Amino acid sequence: MKKILSLIVALACCCLVATAGNRKQEKANADTDMFRYDLEYVKSGGSGVVNVKVWSYSKKKEVANEQNRKNAVHGILFKGHSGSGAVFNPIVKSATALSEHAEFFAAFFADGGDYQRYVEGSISGSTEVVKVGKEYKVGAVVRVRTNELRKHLEQANIIRGLSSGF
Questions:
Q1: Nearest by Cα to 143 from 73, 83, 95, 75
Q2: Taking Cα atoms as reference points, which of 73, 34, 41, 24 lies closest to residue 57?
Q3: pLDDT for position 139
């Protein structure tokens, strides 16, 4: 009887630890699900690659730093960016594309989603942390493979190909 009771207590403790970890991740995702960030062009990283500085906001600097890659891809897709006297339009030009293809983009931007295939982490030494009120603003230079990203969206019929005409 004592063995069964101790087994039940041990399982209950494991469940509590697992759900606490999930709640922490859910809260971190909620902090950044609004895609609050700033994006600035740094320089071209070569053919089909662009370096951008992304500033993400969160109550925890680790969470904001993790979200920089996701926010960089989101910005290139939906916001566009500017800098060095140039303006770069977003890849997805339709204002309704995010809602029309909500299931695709939810999976694309999920933790461990496809967005990771098109972005490289922050360039070493480029991370900056600024305390703004009760939250952190974390900036990093990130490389995004825009040509590959565009091809993926064309194949998924999210955007029209550049060669499809007007």
A1: 73
A2: 34
A3: 92
DSSP 123: P
E strand segments, the chain? 37-44, 49-58, 81-83, 86-88, 119-122, 128-132, 135-145
| Angle subtended by helix axes 2-32 and 61-74, to nearest 10 | 50
Angstrom CA distances, 159 to 4, 35, 68, 81, 150, stand at: 58, 21, 24, 19, 8
CB 144 within 8 A of CB 83: no
* Residue given tokens 């029209």 in the structure block: 160
Per-residue pLDDT tens over the stretch 44-95 = 777 888 889 999 998 888 888 778 899 999 999 999 888 777 788 899 988 8
115 with 70: CB under 8 angstroms?
Answer: yes
pLDDT at 83: 76
pTM for this structure? Answer: 0.76
Q: Which of 143, 162, 137 is nearest to 151 (CA)?
A: 162
